[in-house]
Amino acid sequence: MIGKTSKVGVIGAGRVGAAVANALVLLRKCVTVVLFARTLSKAEGEAWDISDSIPLLSEMDVIPTDRYEDLADSDVIVITSGATNKEGESRLDLLMKNAEIIIATIKELDRVAPNAVVIIVSNPVDVLTRIAIRSVTEGIANSQRPENLIIGSGTVLDTARLRYRLGKQLNVDNRDIHTYVIGEHGDSEFTVWSSAFIGSIPLEKFPMSEGATFAQITQNYTELTRSRGYAIVERKGGTSYGIATVVAQIIGSILRDEKQIYTVSVRAESAYGIGDEVVLGLPCIIGQQGIERQLLLPRNDEEQRLLEESAAKLDEAYSSLNK
């Protein structure tokens, strides 16, 4: 059941922001959605359109606004504002455009809703999440809220895409596919195949359909997962529905304190061996306190190398802001 007073703010009423607000309504994840946009008429148009579905569902409120003050008392706030990928443009190309937006937005949220869990969706999500956190060890903090209350959407969508396609290949319910895509939400992401299980059976030992091999699956599905977002952007100009559902599910885990595991953008613990400041997609338990625990995922030597390469790429992108 949803909480009687659960309130979620969505910043940005563009393609992704509107889709997140709509998903929250369709999936009944909260009682009140506040849709914020700098142009009030844009927020009104999207909010009113979404609200027209409520009579066919269950009672909720979708409130349009251009005032940060209306986000006060939110349990969760989602940041979707910023430039989006253009065809042929990587997520990291968006960094310079969106870094200043994130810093300004986080400061406003600290002012009006300091206790809310903040979920960052804008790309490049890993670097922008690091900018939002700006840990004490770096000598500056862009947000005053505890680090566990700032979450990037990470590689949750990538992991969901992989599990769904792999389930179809193996003729198994995707809920029984236990594997993760980690690292950058982008070109250097990778699947931790050495820790992949179908039920309790290691993927490498799972009976395949005739002609399929473990080596073929790992090669094919790694590339398919990585390129899926670009394929969608090429055909329709951007993604929205998949990431909106991902965000709604994460919000549900927070509001209901479900303790589900998601590969969100988080500052890597030292046990991963990639430094203490890099932020990237890693498995974490998500509940009422946001990131409640980061999990150490077993990986082989090759996967550790890929993790270090992904971390180095993200660290370089973050450092470029100071040049």
What can you tell me about this protein's structure?
The strands form 4 sheets. A 6-stranded parallel beta sheet has the order 3-2-1-4-5-6, sandwiched between helices. The chain has a 3-stranded antiparallel beta sheet with strand order 7-10-11. It has a 3-stranded antiparallel beta sheet with strand order 12-13-14. Helix content is 38%, strand content 18%. The chain is built from 8 helices and 14 strands. The chain is an alpha/beta fold and 323 residues long. The model has no long low-confidence stretch (mean pLDDT 92). The radius of gyration is 19 Å and the shape is globular. α1 packs parallel to α2 and α5 packs across α6. It folds into 2 domains: 146 residues, 3-Layer(aba) Sandwich (Rossmann fold); 165 residues, L-2-Hydroxyisocaproate Dehydrogenase, Chain A, domain 2.
Give me some keywords for this one.
8 helices; 14 strands; alpha/beta; 2 domains; six-stranded parallel beta sheet; 323 residues; three-stranded antiparallel beta sheet; Rossmann fold; L-2-Hydroxyisocaproate Dehydrogenase, Chain A, domain 2; globular
Low-confidence stretches: none
Strand content: 15-25%
Quaternary organisation of the protein chains: single chain
In the CATH hierarchy, the third-tier topology of the largest domain is known as L-2-Hydroxyisocaproate Dehydrogenase, Chain A, domain 2
Number of helices: 8
Count the beta strands.
14
* Structural class label: alpha/beta
The helix content, as a percent range, equals: 25-40%
Largest sheet, spatial ordering of strands:
3-2-1-4-5-6
Q: Given the C-alpha coordinates, what overall shape results? A: globular
Distance between the termini: 49 Å
Largest sheet: 6 strands, parallel
Pfam family, one: Ldh_1_N
Organism: Cyanomargarita calcarea GSE-NOS-MK-12-04C
GO molecular function, one term: L-lactate dehydrogenase (NAD+) activity
Keywords: NAD, Oxidoreductase
